């Protein structure tokens, strides 16, 4: 059995050369090889292409490389979580490419498997797909995505043995597992290294043949940034809670449900164990429980897609981001509840971009909009200027077409019945006259 060299974080950073393509593991700061990345930030290595779900947090992880001017290009799914990355992209100081989260994960998995590329329905017809080859497959327009490989993958695992076999902890598989297969040099930063044989072969997530170097560096709460502790940022008012309660009423026992950020997160607080609803989070967990009551953070608990520490219910499972989005695209998610910026009379959704605003990230929205069996959108009926968000035709960049099944605002509930926007319910505190006045889109009424 081979023995993988154990090196320092400084030595690992020295293996990265000018112009290299770097795969950086992690989802936010969870499972992020922050110690090696920070050592790389101390070097003069430049012109790097950094591929990751997001560019760390401000001045943390990849964010430190960005601030040092070491990045030539960023490829990722959700830059919005780091405003400095958004500003650098929008000001033209760094090149960037935005991919849906599931597309990014699958492209890395394809690259690691020696597959040149694949077709996916995610993003078809949207700005994200501009300039890409498309083809009609199984009656759907699908977009061709090339596989992704890097010169160096810098990943984080929890435990390794001296043969390089890796074991991840909780939701720390995320992008790490696929990235471990998809680079010429793979460096794994780990919490613990044990002798061969001490990790049960059944519990190895990444076989040692993929790993070239190990770096033992203990993770601290400081390394995890804002995920280090629970700090609820939910804004709860009566109207928001009414929307969450109405969305919850649509769920049935046994449903596998994905909740987006914002109002949809309130639905999680309404779910009880006896409801039999299984929550899915796209960064790699099925069976998500409530936030921990003891205030513990990501050192001790898994995190959800909002990067908030959560608990694991009995029967929960962990997996990586590529498998998570295979569940989504494969039709294994019964209901997705997401926020929105606009919904139009054709059931089109816009929820990821506002021209001129500091937003640069699509995350998993496109995959969920096209892959979930049922899509419920929650949004405020009007914007700050009083303009309707329920419009005849979307004016903002589209997330997906004809995808919305139900729309819930603080005023009313709409369904798309035979392709027609249909008002089915007035929510407390509103009137039919108010709904008519504040809705730009044409709709029919079938009030219950």
Automatic annotation (TrEMBL):
The keyword Transferase applies. It comes from the Bacteria. The active site is at 282 (5-glutamyl coenzyme a thioester intermediate). InterPro entries: 3-oxoacid_CoA-transf_A, 3-oxoacid_CoA-transf_B, 3-oxoacid_CoA-transferase, CoA_trans_fam_I, NagB/RpiA_transferase-like. One of its GO terms (biological process) is ketone body catabolic process. One of its GO terms (molecular function) is CoA-transferase activity. Keywords: Transferase. Pfam families: CoA_trans. Belongs to the 3-oxoacid CoA-transferase subunit B family. This is 3-oxoacid CoA-transferase. It comes from Maribacter aquivivus. The lineage of its organism: Bacteria, Pseudomonadati, Bacteroidota, Flavobacteriia, Flavobacteriales.
């Amino acid at each position: 059995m081979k023995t993988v060299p154990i090196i320092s974080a400084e030595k690992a950073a020295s293996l990265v050369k000018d112009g290299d393509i770097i795969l950086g593991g992690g989802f936010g700061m969870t499972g992020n090889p922050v110690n090696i990345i920070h050592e790389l930030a101390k070097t003069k290595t430049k012109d790097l292409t950094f591929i990751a779900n997001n560019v760390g947090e401000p001045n943390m992880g990849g964010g430190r490389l960005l601030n040092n001017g070491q990045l030539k290009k960023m490829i990722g799914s959700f830059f919005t979580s780091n405003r400095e990355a958004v500003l650098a992209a929008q000001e033209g100081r760094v090149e960037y490419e935005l991919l849906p989260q599931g597309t990014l994960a699958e492209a890395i998995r394809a690259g690691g498997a020696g597959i040149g590329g694949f077709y996916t329905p995610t993003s078809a017809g949207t700005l994200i797909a501009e300039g890409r080859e498309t083809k009609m497959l199984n009656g759907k327009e699908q977009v061709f995505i090339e596989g992704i490989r890097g010169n160096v993958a810098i990943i984080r695992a929890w435990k390794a043995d001296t043969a390089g076999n890796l074991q991840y902890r909780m939701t720390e598989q995320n992008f790490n597992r696929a990235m471990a297969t998809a680079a010429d040099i793979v460096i794994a930063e780990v919490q613990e290294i044990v002798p061969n044989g001490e990790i049960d072969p059944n519990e190895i997530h990444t076989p040692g043949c993929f790993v070239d170097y190990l770096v033992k560096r203990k993770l601290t709460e400081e390394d995890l940034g804002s995920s280090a502790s629970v700090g609820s940022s939910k804004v709860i008012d009566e109207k928001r809670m009414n929307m969450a309660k109405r969305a919850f009423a649509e769920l049935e026992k046994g449903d596998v449900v994905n909740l987006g950020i914002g109002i949809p997160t309130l639905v999680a607080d309404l779910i009880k164990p006896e409801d039999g609803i299984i929550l899915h989070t796209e960064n790699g967990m099925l069976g998500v429980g409530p936030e921990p009551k003891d205030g513990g953070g990501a050192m001790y608990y898994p995190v959800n897609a909002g990067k908030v520490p959560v608990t694991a219910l009995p029967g929960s499972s962990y997996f990586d981001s590529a498998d998570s989005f295979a569940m989504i695209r494969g039709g294994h998610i019964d209901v997705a509840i997401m926020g929105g910026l606009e919904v139009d009379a054709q059931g089109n959704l816009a929820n990821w971009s506002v021209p001129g605003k500091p937003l640069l990230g699509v995350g998993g929205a496109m995959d969920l909009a096209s892959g979930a069996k049922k899509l419920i959108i929650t949004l405020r009926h009007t914007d700050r200027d009083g303009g309707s968000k329920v419009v005849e035709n979307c004016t903002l960049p589209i997330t997906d077409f004809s995808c919305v099944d139900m729309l819930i605002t603080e005023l009313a509930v709409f369904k798309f019945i035979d392709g027609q926007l249909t008002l089915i319910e007035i929510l407390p505190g509103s009137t039919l006259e108010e709904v008519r006045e504040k809705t730009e889109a044409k709709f029919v009424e079938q009030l219950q």
